[in-house]
Amino acid sequence: MSLFKKPCMVDYKEMLAEARAIYLAMKQGAISYEKAKLMTTPYLEIINKRVRKLARKHGVYAKEIRFNDLNRNI
To answer: What contacts 65, CB < 8 A, 6 or more positions away?
Structure first.
């Protein structure tokens, strides 16, 4: 097993942090709701795709992350 990350691997925690930063910018009034939702959609689609894959692998229900969930600790 390699100790180094593969360069093509996606860091899902970092993607979630970026989506949260966009959400918080919207809460502060820096960007509009519509723009924030459009900006976070690609992140959430990739993360939710991974969530569905892991849920299928373990035979459980997938708890997908929605735009409004970015304000909560998940």
So the answer is: 16, 44, 47, 48, 51, 74
User: Which residues, at least 6 apart from 56, have a Cβ–Cβ distance to it below 8 Å?
Assistant: 62
Give the Cα separation of 56 and 36 in Å (integer).
30
Place of tokens 């997938």: 62
Q: How far is CA 70 from CA 2, 3, 19, in A?
A: 33, 31, 7
**Of 51, 41, 50, whose CA–CA distance to 18 is shortest?**
41
- Under a CB-based contact definition with an 8 Å cutoff, are residues 26 and 32 in contact? yes
pLDDT tens figures, 29-65: 999 999 999 999 999 999 999 999 999 999 999 999 9
Query: pLDDT by residue (tens digit) across 9-25?
Result: 678 999 999 999 999 99
**Model's pTM, two decimal places?**
0.80
